[in-house]
Amino acid sequence: MWVLLLLIVTVTSIVSGPSCSVNHNPRHIYVPGDIVVGGLFPVYLQVKTNGSTIPPQKTCIDYDVQMFLRSQVMIYAIQEINRSQMLPNVSVGYEIYDTCGDVTNAVRATLSMMEDIQGQGVKPNVTTPHVKVVIGERYSEKSIAVARLLALPLVAQISYSSTSELLSRKCKFPSFLRTVSSDEHQTIAIAELVKHLTWESVGVIGSDDEYGKYGAERLIDHFNDRKLCVDFKEILSANFLLNETRKQTELAMLMSKIRNSSAEAIVIFTAELNVRIILKEVLRMGISRIWIACDTWATNKDLSEMPDIQKVGRVFGFIPKRNKVPGFHEYVRDSMFQSKAHNSFIHEFMCHYPPCPDSLVDESVLNCTLPDTKSQSESGGRTCLDRRCLLKYIDKDESYYIYLAVKVIAQGLRSLLNCDNVRCKRNASFAVWEVTFANCCKTCNPGYELISKINSCCKECSLCSRGYISTGGGKKCVACHPQSEYTSSDMDRCLMKTIEYLGWTDAFTTVLVSFDVLGIVVSLLVAILFAVDQRTPIVKSTGGYLSFLELLSLLACFCCISMFLGEPTKTTCMAGLPLFGMAFTVCVSCILANLLQIFVGFTFDLRVTVGDTLKRLNRPIAVVTCCSAVQVAVCVLWLTYAPPFIVESSRFDEATILLECNKGSKMLFGAMLTYIALLAVVCFLFAFKGKQLPDLYKNASFVSISMMIFLVVWIVFIPVYINMSGKYQRAIEAAAILVSNYSVLCCHFAPKCYIMLFRKELNNESAIINYIRKHYEKKGMAVVSK
User: Fold this and answer.
1) Quick check: helix, strand or coil at residue 335?
2) For a Cys staple, 102 with which of 47, 56, 587, 758, CB 3.0–4.6 Å?
3) pTM here?
4) Phi, psi of 269 (to 5 degrees)
5) Tens of pLDDT, residues 176-205
């Protein structure tokens, strides 16, 4: 529709008349016609400026065969229109300029096309320019400059390659049209591709021109809308290609950013000349990444044929819909070079690539590598080129859109001449190549989760913390139940913990039970032996009936060992230590009462007050009852206010739940042990004092040894118990109790049993009397000798 409106405005009359003299700088072709269509093509891709001359001299360099062929597509399409009588009695001419990729040349060419031939061709005429519609320019930056000029006379401009979204603003560029979709479609497609491939960070490289700058900005907007992180953005300066020093500085900075970037893909949104320089430096630096190509270089043949180009990594791009130009291959092969019409572009091409003599070589084995025009000019030689090779350089995108632009113009003119009204629809479809390469972590092995790096868009795999698991795929780590579950070795699943305690089948338990049963059996045998010989002196010297109470309490201590083994229960936890404390206190109290009897019985030189006091205390039942009552009070208080209880203890990284008994009140537990230790110390002091007494059976000596063993065992037990954890903690308690029991059994009862069984001659009153007499006789002789 825009084409029709613009043509109505601009094509107000069919221009005819003699051709004017045109400027040959820049290069151009002019063929007159009733209607003249202008064309702007960068056949040379760039210019080289010589700043040493005034004014600076510009030289076109980097001849491009594909752009030459695209300029010929316009000529071919116009010739087809003229031959087809699509526009009866109207001829279409053309005026085509080579802009050399320079905005100054493009503006100069546009001003030339705006001259009024009828107005003597001296000044640009914004009212009736002789060119009614312009096809071009290729690059958006140049098209914007041209569009600002053509907007004054409302001359239609149809670009075949300028995709900048800025050109879609009709308020600024009312006469601009294009046969290729704008960058808005392309940038949306790129953002959707990044999202579809689940990339989360990208880098963007643009250039300080209308195409690269605005394209990069729109890309970043679309990435932000989709919550995609832009790891870095780099805009090449406007004089990137012109200033070598600046170019090297920017390249070094850009390569540093690319090398250190965590971006999963890098979009290069700039002209192909900039891309070529960037990719050469990438190859030199040995960098391999994922690249997203915009339509300016997605299908560029020169880039795809760069040496080792595959080493840059994976490249995928977006291109418009592609089509062949109908009949153009045949035109190039058969008639383009035989045309009699003046075509300076063809002469320029033949200057660079003279035709080879007719050859019978098959097309499949032709060497169609184009020689470098710069090296040819320096060497002064020319390399011929088989014309059939040109067919390989005909593209299917820009060439088709040039052809389409000419057809749109023809249809517009046909409509003005009462032909069928035809509308042209622009195709916005894209072709996409998939890739599977990525630089950042997108998924993780089991036991790892994805976390964001500091100051980076990229994510990395991080090992789950203790007690946490992840099934992989980048999922977040989740906690296992700390009390009942633990993590597998790969940290990919939660496993149920097993209950652990000192079982009956444990080797340590077997040893403890063996000694415990042995202690019980020996205690019973000693009790039987004492019962048989209860009227003998040795039994009486051991305490008489107190010895049976002592054996009974010792038996209770052996029996309570079972409460420290096996699975803890509420009863065993509460009864174990208090029962031992009370039973062993009774045992030690009996020993203390027995020692008090011996001490009073054999001590005759005590002072009156001390002797009377000891004699009053020499009541065994009262001593045992009073001493035991204190311990019973402590244990009752313990069990009432802070009794021991079962606890399940486990850490995150442990596969077991330990069942153990908590002491409840550690203070009362300590008070219980302290009280027993106090009685043991008193016993030890009495026994040590009584070692000088005439005791045939050495009760005091053996008691002092047993009490010493008890004290040492429990002094060693306390630090070991505190620093030990696990199921064997209760085994240490049981072992300490066993050693304490055996110290009494072995030191207090075993010597008596030995005498009763093997030294019966000492188990009578006469032996005791003789021993006492000898003791005092020896003591008296010692006194006399002094």
Assistant:
1) helix
2) 47
3) 0.52
4) -115, 80
5) 998 888 888 888 888 999 888 888 888 999
